Amino acid sequence: SKWVYAFGGGAAEGRSGMKNLLGGKGANLAEMANLGLPVPPGFTITTEVCTYYYTNGNVYPADLKAQVSAALTQIEKIMGSTFGSIDNPLLVSVRSGARASMPGMMDTVLNLGLNDQTVEGLAARSKDPRFAYDSYRRFIQMYSDVVLGVEHHHFEDILDSHKSDHDLTLDTDLSAEDWKTVVAAYKEKVKEELGRPFPQTVEDQLWGAIGAVFGSWMNQRAITYRRLHDIPSEWGTAVNVQAMVFGNMGDDCATGVAFTRNPSTGANEFYGEYLVNAQGEDVVAGIRTPQYLTTAARQAAGADLPSMEEVMPRVFADLEDVRRKLEAHFTDMQDLEFTVQQSKLWMLQTRTGKRTAAAALKIAVDMAEAGLISKEAAVRRIEPGALDQLLHPTLDPKAERRLLAHGLPASPGAASGRVVFSAEDAELWTKKGEKVILVRIETSPEDIGGMHVSQGILTSRGGMTSHAAVVARGMGRPCVAGAGELRIDYRAKTLKSMGQEVKEGDVITLDGSTGQVMLGAVPTVQPELTGDFGTLMGWVDSIRTLKVRANAETPLDARTARHFGAEGIGLCRTEHMFFDPSRIIAVREMILASDEEGRRHALAKIQPYQKNDFVELFEIMQGLPVTIRLLDPPLHEFLPGNDAEMEEVARAAGTDIAVLRARNTQLHEANPMLGHRGCRLGITYPEIYEMQARAIFEAAVEVARKSGKTVSPEIMIPLVGTKKELDLLKEVIDRAAAEVFKASGTTLDYLVGTMIELPRAALTAGAIAESAAFFSFGTNDLTQTTLGMSRDDSGPFLEVYRQRGIYEHDPFASLDQEGVGELIQIAAERGRKTRPNLKLGICGEHGGDPASIAFCQRVGLDYVSCSPYRVPIARLAAAQAAL
Ligand code: ADP
Ligand code: MG
Ligand code: MG
């Protein structure tokens, strides 16, 4: 079978659709070659070889060697040089490339094919022999590090001491002779570390590197990464072998990385960095400060070093051309890697570029408006959860700022927190409940955990494509990178900048959108939801069929919900209104009363407050439906916590404290979640629901009259398990309505419905629907009651359950579609059979979870209801579910 796919010379055997077989890098190199872009010739060894290797006791397929050497000959033909030849050696890079980009895999080895003889041949052929020895030392270091396991620092030490012995500062200051000396010392070191010399046979070098790529698929870091990202180990990795092109041959050479649009803002401008006379890894490694690609970006940053546009205008124009072609072809923003050898451009990689949520939005909208993609594609492209980044506050432009430093706007958003100087400290402080800003000279993959828990990240070194910048954008953390004036002292845990000193624990603020760093906490303002956001949400709303409501009870929540586009309230939890300090005493009095009369006495005190709550809600919601759930929690949740509170209640009720204490004890329950709560309260103490219903209707009548708008209360009974419960309570509500309407001389439409949160309710939904005008699936309780698993106590063992694959997701966060979902489906079907126009919604946490929303769409619910900040996320998820 075919194990090797060639590319280059204007054609390729693979294409971008073959990522499973060729890995992301290999498939896109093939695609670029097919598009006629300048790609150094090479070949990809497929992921199937990796799978074969591991299922056959670590051996390669028999015919692999022959296919590799045929493909190598093909490269030699195109390049006019020969692998291992002394006169005219071909050098290659060996690059790993899984389907999904995977840090933790083997790094790239460049300049493979150099040995003591070929290096002389290469030197003899080039204008400046320096480049040959520079390449050789790079090769020895990389190969030794990633293939032979001789650590980096050995080589860095050798280079550093050579530089200080000879009074040299920069790598570019070293001559051919210098590099020769360094190479000799490197080889000596390898021999010392391994007890054998650095491999001189080019075939051994090649197979050593190929073996290291396949070997790295099973190293611990890669295994961990796969587990965290749900990547199956059967996928395997591909290996790319590609002719070297040289960015380190002199001043008409360069290497760089670019995004076809600004990855931070999404602006349609070319964005990138490059280094003259350098090889690939130098840009990311942060050894030298990279220069800007475009003059506009250079000027905006006030940088001195010239842009590529200024230094190599012709090559830059070629790169612009590639940018246009790739965007038109892939119809998405691309992340490019390129090298310039003696004024000729070579493309080394393209992939879909990572971007911030704001950039994702802008790019999708711009591309749809330009007709490059459809509106549906634009909507499909935004990950709903990523919108979260855009819904949170930004720095108040009017607030005073005490500037501490200025860096690159690497990842937008505002963040304030206490300064910590290491990833471990970030995690430690966060565990203690502190909000932190991680400050580092630069970050590395070991810092991921600390970056994740931090509010924001600040570095003193590195560009827009540095580790900190890329990772922060991916995580949606604000980041200011390369703030050069910062003097960070890890040992003293201080930073100095612009004559000011900041110690560990001091508060600073980052503005990742401008690159400013401020002392202290700067106040924030709510984001504008217009512009691209508004445009995209307009498309979203025209696509989706599911309505989106919010769970809200306070006026603030209700306003936020409307601001974010909620189409009503799906769950107003009335008990939250009871905790207000001005009424909790009356609530306690009501609960502790020993008879109906005592309860009515206390309820009369609560009713005016409760009515006002609803007046406010109805006013804010301006005619949109408002679903109000009558009292639900076990009464003991409201009980006085101590003697002082007990006395307060005794005074208010005019009762003896001893009587109250006895009643308090009486109310204690062993399993309150399955105890005296929900509609059971309404059955035993109908006067509570009666009071609530009255308050709702009086408020509705008042607002309807004042505003002239319809007010649509939907009264919802919790924890119903039988039709009879609902019938009894509906009677109470209807009676209250009739009385209020009669007294006020007005009537209005209202609905009485039920929560479905017990399996019995779901199963008997056909009967319950005879009395219920709507069902709202309370999936928090329905999950709890279906799985028989307490949501308050399940954390510790659920984690183990997830690790063992018993439940793939936390069933309280993402709906258990197999179990709980089945009950929802049964209830929806049986309910609608009885009452075809039965309104169906969901109001658990799941109402804001995209996967659960897709499920709700499939079973035909009318709406989802979620917390106000998740409303836009739910709108987008609903649109995607409808596509
Ligand atoms: P990564 O997946 O870590 O980005 P790559 O395989 O893309 O690793 O290699 C990193 C860099 O090495 C590339 O961006 C490029 O600059 C350089 N490189 C890889 N192959 C070649 C080559 N054949 N010629 C010149 N430079 C190369
Ligand atoms: Mg790369
Ligand atoms: Mg419930």
From TrEMBL:
Keyword Magnesium among record annotations: yes
Stretches assigned to the PEP-utilising enzyme C-terminal domain: 530-881
Signal peptide: none
Binding site for Mg(2+): E757, D781
Record protein name field: Pyruvate, phosphate dikinase
Keywords: ATP-binding, Kinase, Magnesium, Metal-binding, Nucleotide-binding, Pyruvate, Transferase
InterPro entries linked: ATP_grasp_subdomain_1 (IPR013815), PEP-util_enz_mobile_dom (IPR008279), PEP_util_AS (IPR018274), PEP_util_C (IPR000121), Phosphohistidine_dom_sf (IPR036637), PPDK_AMP/ATP-bd (IPR002192), Pyruvate_phosphate_dikinase (IPR010121), Pyrv/PenolPyrv_kinase-like_dom (IPR015813)
Record-linked PANTHER family: PHOSPHOENOLPYRUVATE DIKINASE-RELATED, PYRUVATE, PHOSPHATE DIKINASE 1, CHLOROPLASTIC
Naturally occurring in which organism (per UniProt): Telmatospirillum siberiense
Enzyme class of the recorded protein, top EC level: transferase
EC nos: 2.7.9.1
PROSITE patterns named in the record: PEP_ENZYMES_PHOS_SITE
Record domain Pyruvate phosphate dikinase AMP/ATP-binding: where: 61-367
Entry similarity comment: Belongs to the PEP-utilizing enzyme family.
Keyword check for Iron-sulfur: no
Molecular function via GO: ATP binding; kinase activity; metal ion binding; pyruvate, phosphate dikinase activity
